[in-house]
Specification:
- By secondary structure, this protein is an all-alpha fold.
- The chain has one domain.
- It contains 10 helices and no strands.
- Helix 3 packs antiparallel against helix 6 and helix 5 packs antiparallel against helix 8.
- The radius of gyration is 17 Å and the shape is globular.
Length: about 260
């Protein structure tokens, strides 16, 4: 087996077929453990169910929460352009939570978590596309948080100031897509709510921490994806169905606004 490259996934923008380091990426190897069918050689670029504006998933999640007797406030300002309150967790607790959500997703924390992992659906369906995205993005969260959150405050401050660091923005997008994917799975299969709703709310807490700690993430540039030079090529690759991006669809972008209910 090729030697893994430490940290290569920090620059990932989910285009494994075009990456020369896929077989040496630990995050990719984790996704194979979770879903062997997601081999980059067979990866489909067209996921319409996971290409809508992020704001279209909020009413679905709200309905699921209310069906469980829970309040929308548990999402910590998910639908607000500028979240009004912080999740209130320390940096160390956020680091632990970012590890926990990966373990929960992989079914390592409790045996019952593995039940949804075995769920299968055709990729022509919303459920199949959501499952594929959740299995892809979920394992990235711990590794990317480990890069963003340091035990050394001076080092973290340095990363925050680096406008050319893509990891903070990538982590926003990973969490957004995991939330949308989990919400879609719960909508399509109600039996998954008890397992996926707590995980989704943990994602919301992590996302709130990022949004309140790094409010200028929209200024960071992702390799290729934020470059006009590659815009047409990327759009063609996805056949117009670009992955969810709240910075692009005006859910959170500067000058945008959170849609009213």
């Amino acid at each position: 087996m090729p030697t893994k490259i430490e940290g290569v996934y920090h620059y990932c923008f989910r285009w494994c077929e075009r990456c020369p380091f896929t077989d040496r990426c630990s995050t990719y190897l984790m996704t194979q453990d979770l879903d062997p069918s997601s081999s980059y050689g067979n990866f489909r670029a067209i996921y319409p169910a996971m290409s809508k504006p992020f704001s279209t998933y909020w009413p679905v999640l709200k309905e699921i929460l209310e069906s469980q007797g829970m309040s929308w406030s548990a999402t910590y300002g998910l639908d607000e352009q500028h979240p009004g309150r912080s999740v209130g967790l320390s940096r160390q607790k956020i680091k632990k939570l970012s590890t926990k959500v990966v373990l929960d997703l992989l079914g390592l924390r409790q045996a019952t978590s593995a039940r949804w992992v075995d769920m299968q659906a055709d990729l022509d369906t919303a459920l199949g596309q959501a499952l594929s995205c959740l299995r892809w993005y979920g394992p990235m969260i711990g590794a990317k948080f480990a890069r963003v959150i340091y035990t050394d405050p001076d080092r973290e401050a340095l990363v925050t100031q680096q406008a050319d660091s893509p990891t903070i923005k990538l982590l926003h997008l990973v969490l957004v897509r995991a939330i949308a994917a989990a919400t879609t799975v719960m909508q399509e299969r109600s039996e998954s709510v008890n397992i996926l709703l707590p995980l989704t709310l943990d994602y919301c807490a992590l996302l709130n921490y990022l949004r309140t700690t790094y409010p200028k993430a929209h200024l960071l540039q992702r390799t290729a994806f934020d470059s006009p030079r590659y815009a047409n090529e990327i759009k063609a690759y996805y056949n117009g169905y670009l992955p969810i991006d709240p910075f692009r669809d005006n859910s959170w972008s500067v000058g945008g606004r959170a849609p009213s209910e």
